[in-house]
């Protein structure tokens, strides 16, 4: 039986499905991934390129290819959510983990480009955790 993974964008206009298994799951700390996620790192799964099927909204998907690099990002033109990108040079589809609607059992394979990681992401063990938005932000 083939594994099926489904995902979508934030506004729900774009939906996709992947058939098969993921080969790797990287947390990328390069500066390009920091810029295109607006966060400390990207969380991307890699699968063979022929496994992606757009179920809805394919015409709303746009792709930005960074000049002179392999770095590309696909996103919904309506809400800006990150979506899978076909990476022809490595015969893979790069899937933003947060775009998946179905759970994945795979843990990250590795953190990559850690030499470029944002300094504010180090030593976070003592940062408080909250189940929801903290009260001081709500008031």
From TrEMBL:
CENP-V/GFA domain span: 5-121
UniProt keyword Iron, yes or no: no
Record keyword Mitochondrion present: no
PROSITE patterns tied to this protein: CENP_V_GFA (PS51891)
Cited Pfam families: GFA
UniProt keyword terms in alphabetical order: Lyase, Metal-binding, Zinc
Family that this chain belongs to: Belongs to the Gfa family.
Name recorded for this polypeptide: GFA family protein
């Amino acid at each position: 039986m083939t594994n099926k993974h489904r995902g979508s964008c934030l506004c729900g206009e774009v939906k996709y499905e992947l058939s098969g298994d993921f080969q790797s799951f990287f947390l990328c700390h390069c500066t390009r991934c920091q810029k295109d996620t607006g966060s400390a790192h990207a969380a991307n799964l890699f699968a063979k390129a022929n496994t992606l099927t757009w179920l809805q909204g394919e015409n709303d998907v746009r792709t930005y290819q960074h000049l002179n690099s392999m770095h590309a990002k696909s996103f919904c033109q309506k809400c800006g959510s990150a979506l899978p990108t076909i990476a022809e040079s490595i015969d893979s589809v790069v899937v933003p983990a947060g775009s998946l609607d179905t759970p994945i059992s795979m843990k990250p394979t590795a953190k990559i480009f850690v030499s470029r990681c944002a300094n504010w992401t180090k030593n976070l063990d003592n940062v408080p955790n909250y189940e929801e938005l903290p009260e001081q932000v709500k008031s």
